[in-house]
Write a structure and sequence with these properties.
- The protein is built from 14 helices and 6 strands.
- The chain has helices at residues 3-13, 15-33, 65-75, 88-91, 138-147, 156-164, 167-176, 183-195, 203-208, 217-228, 254-258, 269-272, 304-316, 322-333, and strands at residues 41-42, 60-61, 245-247, 280-282, 338-339, 342-343.
- It folds into 2 domains: 3-60 and 199-343, Cytochrome Bc1 Complex, Chain D, domain 2 (Orthogonal Bundle); 64-195, Cytochrome c-like domain (Cytochrome Bc1 Complex, Chain D, domain 2).
- Strand 5 (338-339) and strand 6 form a beta hairpin.
- The strands form 3 sheets. The chain has a two-stranded antiparallel ribbon.
- It is mostly helical.
- Helix 1 runs antiparallel to helix 2, helix 5 (138-147) packs across helix 8 and helix 10 (217-228) crosses helix 14.
């Protein structure tokens, strides 16, 4: 069942049916559409998680460490851009939650993009890449920023020539890939590194594994509210999102209220040309959301309180009082995980 049919059923049957239906669609897309892109994971014990719509991130991944190391070097190397100034890490800074914390990122020559850069952390668990889902895998996604004139502004022939001129890169690629420096191998190395960017052991994950002391009373109340008002109809699974498309502005027209419509606001419509896809976007993961402002594809929400207010109004069609908003924000802050044993907070 596609998201268009799901939307029709959703509008006819209400929020309870939507939670069940969209959850099923999300998991179906997750396991059928992105299974081959996910790294093999060693399962972790789950107690509370077995009964919840959200599951913990794996504590251990099985990835080639040499490819991870090479991919990490490429990820941080500005030589991949046409002017030698912009790397992948330029917009996806691992020290600031895997984002640059700007509404729109700056590429070569200070050129500004038109859509908010999503976090690279846990991106290997997304069922598609980019806000509009135009890339099926992390490997496919790499073509976008490398060749975008507003981002890295390069081409594969020039990129490969630059890498070939580096003796150390030639040696590293030859050791890992029989055909050496090729576009597919560059993408494989970078994507392998990106799949390693998993942030397990958030306090909420520890809670799901059975540590009831990991969340205080306010945070647990926030999680109960998160489920009760319908947030889990879109934000569920291992990524707490990232596994289905949804319209921004279900209960009220977000874009007419915000104004200043841009091409990026079209979402999936820009790919399919189908009117019913207008304003549909990939639902973002909420993991590490407290450290990845600003929010939404347009970068318009500066704080967690701001984005909670937008979601409650335009997606859920309800209102929260100050206490409830505080509980929900407190819960969202428990989703911040660890990278290389250190919290992203």
């Amino acid at each position: 069942m596609g998201h268009r049919q799901a939307r029709r059923i959703y509008l006819l049957t209400g929020w309870v049916a939507a939670s069940v239906l969209l959850g099923a669609i999300g998991w179906g897309l997750y396991f059928n559409g992105a299974r081959d892109a996910l790294p093999p994971a060693i399962p972790v014990p789950a107690t509370i998680a077995a009964k919840e719509p959200v599951t913990p991130l794996p504590l251990t991944l099985s990835l080639d460490p040499d490819k991870v190391k090479l991919g990490g070097r490429l990820f941080g190397d500005p030589k991949l851009s046409s002017d030698g100034q912009v790397s992948c890490a330029h917009c996806h800074n691992l020290a600031t939650g895997g984002v640059d914390r700007l509404p729109f990122s700056n590429g070569i020559g200070g050129r500004q993009g038109h859509i908010n850069a999503p976090t690279v952390f846990n991106s290997g668990f997304n069922f598609r890449q980019f806000w509009d889902g135009r890339a099926a895998t992390l490997e496919d996604q790499i073509d976008g920023p490398l060749q975008n004139p507003l981002e890295m502004g390069n081409s594969w022939p020039k990129t490969l020539a630059t890498l070939e001129a580096d003796a150390d890169y030639r040696s590293k690629f030859s050791a890992l890939y029989p055909d050496g420096i090729q576009a597919l191998n560059v993408k494989d190395a970078i994507a392998t590194f990106e799949r390693s960017l998993v942030t397990p052991n958030a306090r909420f994950d520890r809670f799901l594994r059975g540590d009831l002391t990991a969340l205080n009373e306010q945070e647990q109340a926030g999680y109960r509210l998160f489920k009760r008002i319908g947030c889990t109809s879109c934000h569920q699974g291992m990524g707490i999102g990232g596994n289905l498309y949804q319209k921004l502005g279900i209960m009220e027209d977000y874009f007419s209220v915000r104004g200043h419509i841009t091409e990026a606001d079209g979402g999936r419509f820009n790919l399919t040309g189908q009117e019913e896809d207008r304003h549909f976007f990939k639902v973002p993961s909420l993991r590490n959301v407290a450290v990845t402002p600003p929010y939404l594809h347009d970068g318009s929400a500066r704080t967690l309180k701001d984005v909670v207010g937008i979601m409650v109004r335009f997606q859920l069609g309800t209102k929260l009082d100050a206490t409830e908003t505080g509980e929900l924000v407190a819960f969202l802050k428990t989703l911040t995980g660890e990278y290389q044993g250190r919290s992203l907070e």
